[in-house]
């Protein structure tokens, strides 16, 4: 018989199920309880109605939320870019060129080093309440180095893996970007596809143009991968429109958008994933979250954790920025960091706490999720269950 665990005395429980509690999108139940069985949520509801369970855990009036879903990170790397950040904070501008520094270091690193760096970051994320992580290749940029990075991720058990051979054109292909595009869409894809679920392209001036991006995303689709796109990050470009055209699960960054881009997103199943750690760490203007939300676009929040443009692994930090600097409400930011991330990964089993969903949840040292932005920088994550197992 599988054992059941009942979490009781929850001041608030965010279910992300509008049918629960107050009827809002977060489906907040007050004075709640939650029962876990076999790694899944077996029951949610008011504490005075909780069914008997084998084990009890008294949450002491804390808030429970779904584990964060960080649907965009770049953790398959080696090396350090402290100096680049330091120079930027003294006035230098961020460009995609810094990626080359990380490519050099990553190619030199052994598999064990890549695996250890990935594991350390995933652990760091878990301690901050992130129970699902997507990560990408993109610092290998040859068939051999891209495939081994993705293999390392697959061997480490990471669930959401993205092939980003099209991060930049590496120096050895600088004179022949179309030749590199053919490699990414051909031999490199062949070697990488077995390890990945997603294909991504950095569609940007100085990276890949519209035609090159379309070629790679279409080839990825033909191999069974689903597209997601680094779109409209540094300048206005064709990325968002292309993401919608190819049916991407997500258009990420979305910093420079026209009304046509916003309309295209609103009329599609493509999620807009906003990465405020990136604008924070590059001193750039934040994306217009309100404009997207008011147009009816589904918005996700993620860290973009990478050594160049956004070296934070903290979803609570991103939530705090999204609320203070991007005009999102605390409810919207929490939804985007959980259910929004799940939607960006086309998952229905995570990002929510409803009967049958995965028992990935966080207890906050606070009575409500609003404290994530009300108390910025305070380590409020006090316990984390992943698949029903207490990890933090
Ligand atoms: O999402 N924009 C492209 N890629 C990363 C940055 C990578 C880097 O600077 O190393 C991003 O911001
Ligand atoms: Fe990124």
TrEMBL record:
State the Gene3D superfamilies in the record: Metal-dependent hydrolases, Urease, subunit C, domain 1
Record-level Gene Ontology MF annotations: imidazolonepropionase activity
- Binding-site list for Fe(3+): 72, 74, 230, 304
The enzyme class is hydrolase
**Binding annotation for 4-imidazolone-5-propanoate:** 81, 139, 167, 233, 309
Please state every residue range assigned to the domain named Amidohydrolase-related: 251-366
Co-factor binding details:
Binds 1 zinc or iron ion per subunit.
> Would the keyword Hydrolase be found if you checked this record's keyword annotation?
yes
Keyword Chaperone annotated = no
Binding positions (Zn(2+)): 72, 74, 230, 304
InterPro entries in alphabetical order: Amidohydro-rel (IPR006680), HutI (IPR005920), Metal-dep_hydrolase_composite (IPR011059), Metal_Hydrolase (IPR032466)
Query: What functional role does this protein have?
Result: Catalyzes the hydrolytic cleavage of the carbon-nitrogen bond in imidazolone-5-propanoate to yield N-formimidoyl-L-glutamate. It is the third step in the universal histidine degradation pathway.
Member of which family?
Belongs to the metallo-dependent hydrolases superfamily. HutI family.
Q: Which PANTHER family match?
A: IMIDAZOLONEPROPIONASE, IMIDAZOLONEPROPIONASE-RELATED
What's this protein's name?
Imidazolonepropionase
The scientific name of the source species is: Streptomyces spirodelae
